[in-house]
Write a structure and sequence with these properties.
Strand content of chain A: under 5%
Distance between the termini of chain B: 40 Å
Oligomer: heterodimer
Largest sheet of chain B: 8 strands, mixed
CATH class of chain A: Mainly Alpha
Number of helices of chain B: 10
Order of helices and strands of chain B: EEEHEEHEHHHEHEHEEHHHEE
Order of helices and strands of chain A: HHHHHHHHHHHH
Number of helices of chain A: 12
Structural class of chain A: mainly alpha
Distance between the termini of chain A: 40 Å
């Protein structure tokens, strides 16, 4: 029954690696073709946003005076003029502007989701772990914040403090974590009843250490899935705000602002102004959704 | 006389239960999981705690270890009341009292590997270096019959018996004085049960452990315990040395419990008379007045409903909470 072996450090150093749940999930994720395709598309879009400024022959705020006034003919996409995606109504290079818009949109999505993950997870797990009155008070705060119309606050914020990217981040960050806090709290309540948490309490582990070592790692699967689905919804919010004319400020732009500009000129025979940004927008969102689906299937195969 | 290692004095645990659909301000009903329980555990002793499901055995253990708050009474650890300790002082106690759980897999964090799991109490209560911790973990794993080179594996890669060994290794790594085993073998196969019980008995002998061993299977408890306490609906109804309790059960509930243990011999098993208890365990939300066992007791009489019978010492170290057990009646 009992097997005698050396228990010195050298024997332990050669101990075989175990198959962690994360390693399992990674394997399942990479077997999912749609998710991997989404990941590739997203990587291409990110590379486009990062490398674009170096390969674009034009700057995003530079006006091509040769094009201005005859955008329908001179401003169409062509390799000769260097306007690969054509120009917008003011003669600015659409390729450079799409690169710039992609940067802003991805940043808004990722920063919004990151705030949600960090703040929402910690807030929710603390509320769920301590329970009782702490939980009641903390979750009522979330309920109150949630009952305030989101768009209204965001619009007000941008009108009162002026339109800037910072304000946009503040506004989105302020609200994005609420749903996440609720999800984290619900999951924590379920985990709190598990025996391994009880074992840690009985051992005398400090509550905050229990939250960080035992609760959060077990929440992470759900959180990651929700976060990847939160990124596109943040991008959509930002696009909507920009579409209303309240988002980023000229000459900066975003996917939503570009689509807005393109849509305004739809009838004037300059469809590329709409189609290029729209293509990136749709491809980006699809990529995020596929990755989110793939992660969900990979991380909790039981819940399918 | 020195204080016993652990003594539980008049322990009450009541859970507030909200009736379904009640207003938030409605006063919750009280579910009495443990009521006025008294227990004494001497150093080096194994106290078996038996009773059917829902009798409050696990709740009693959780109140001792502090994961469930006691609503009344005291838990004295080496003569010190631990229910009055602040949270930090309570946490320090985790070094001396440890617990082994019923569901071996659920008691291990699925995101941590075995080395991290077993080392956690060490990381919490000592400031050993990572290298020393690894050495201690390796020794402990070998001691519970696991290969030390499994430290990087994860709980889901192990069988139930192995998981329970990991749980035991985690509980014993800080060399505690009291080990609480909450039905440590009921989730395991019979053959594995024997291995784990023998492992626990061996560890107890070698490390000078005291144990509080909870089970609903009397034959397991009889094998490992020096003394046995029987619980029914949150009350302790009989305590006695293990041999005396099995040979000479006095409380009618204990008698029924012992009569229900099957004899591993089909001829004798078929031949013997087996009085089976009628009815169900009453609701702890609304326990019967007086003696809680009277609703199912074969020798119950009208005055059993008036007052709760006290636990009386009838023979040396043999306490029974039934004044009428020797006055006949068919059992």
């Amino acid at each position: 029954m009992r097997t005698a072996t050396l228990s010195d450090a050298s024997a332990l150093a050669t101990a075989p690696k175990g198959r962690s749940l994360w390693a399992d999930a990674r394997r399942r994720f990479f077997r999912n073709r749609a998710a991997v395709a989404g990941l590739v598309v997203l990587a291409l879009i990110a590379a486009f946003a990062l490398l674009g400024p170096w390969i674009a022959p034009w700057d995003y705020e530079e006006i091509d005076w040769a094009v201005l006034g005859s955008v329908e003919t001179m401003g169409r996409p062509s390799l000769e003029t260097g306007h690969w995606f054509g120009t917008d109504q003011l003669g600015r290079d659409l390729f450079a502007r799409t690169v710039q818009g992609t940067q802003i949109s991805l940043m808004v999505g990722i920063v919004g989701a990151l705030i949600a993950v960090v703040v929402g997870t910690l807030y929710g797990s603390v509320a769920g772990y301590f329970g009782g009155r702490v939980d009641g008070a903390m979750m009522r705060v979330v309920d109150v914040l949630m009952s305030i119309p989101y768009m209204f606050v965001l619009i007000l914020l941008l009108v009162v403090f002026g339109r800037s990217i910072l304000m946009l981040f503040v506004g989105i960050g302020l609200i994005s974590w609420l749903d996440m806090a609720r999800i984290a709290r619900g999951q924590t309540l379920a985990l709190r009843g598990k025996e391994f948490v009880e074992a840690a309490i009985a051992t005398g582990v400090h509550p905050f250490r229990i939250i960080l070592r035992h609760i959060v790692p077990n929440l992470l699967g759900v959180i990651i899935v929700y976060a990847t689905l939160l990124v596109p919804s943040m991008i959509i919010y930002e696009s909507f705000i920009s579409f209303l004319g309240l988002g980023v400020q000229e000459p900066l732009t975003s996917w939503g602002a570009l689509i807005n500009d393109g849509a305004a000129e739809m009838r004037n025979g300059t469809s590329w102004q709409l189609l290029f940004p729209l293509g990136f927008f749709v491809a980006g969102l699809f990529a995020f959704f596929f990755i989110g689906d793939g992660l969900r299937d990979a991380l909790d195969p039981k819940d399918r | 006389m020195t204080a016993p290692l652990l003594s539980v004095e008049g322990l009450d645990v009541t859970f507030p239960v909200m009736p379904r659909g009640a207003w938030p301000w409605t006063k919750p009903a009280g579910l009495q999981a443990v009521s006025k329980a008294d227990l004494v555990l001497q150093r080096g002793e194994t106290l078996g705690l038996v009773g059917e499901s829902g009798s409050g055995k696990s709740t009693l253990a959780r109140a001792v270890i502090g994961t469930v708050p006691a609503t009344g009474g005291r838990v004295m650890w080496k003569g010190r009341d631990v229910t009055a300790l602040d949270p930090a002082g309570r946490r320090k106690l985790g070094r001396e009292v440890q617990m082994v759980f019923q569901d071996p897999l659920a008691a291990l964090n699925p995101r941590m590997n075995v080395g991290q799991i077993v080392a956690e109490p060490l990381a919490t209560h000592t400031d050993l270096s990572a290298k020393e911790r690894r050495t201690r973990v390796g020794e402990m794993m070998e001691r519970v019959g696991l290969l030390p080179n499994l430290v990087n594996r994860y709980p889901h890669e192990f069988s139930g018996g192995q998981c329970q060994r990991i749980g035991i290794a985690r509980a014993l790594i800080t060399k505690p004085e009291l080990l609480i085993c909450d039905e440590p073998v009921s989730a395991l196969d019979v053959s594995v049960q024997a291995q784990v019980v023998n492992l626990l008995a061996g560890l107890q002998r070698d490390m000078g452990l005291s144990m509080l061993f909870i089970a609903h299977d009397l034959s397991v408890v009889r094998h490992i315990s020096t003394r046995i306490a029987v619980m029914y609906l949150g009350r302790i109804v009989e305590t006695a040395p293990a041999a005396a309790l099995v040979a000479d059960p006095r409380h009618p509930y204990t008698r029924a419990l012992i009569a229900s243990v099957p004899i591993p011999d089909p001829v004798r098993e078929r031949a013997r008379s087996r009085p089976v208890l009628e009815g169900e365990l009453p609701s702890p939300l609304n326990p019967p007045s007086g003696c809680v066992f009277r609703t199912r007791c074969p020798i119950a009489r009208p005055d059993c409903a008036t007052a709760r019978p006290p636990l009386v010492e009838e023979a040396p170290d043999h306490r029974v909470a039934c004044p009428y057990h020797d006055r006949g009646g068919p059992v």
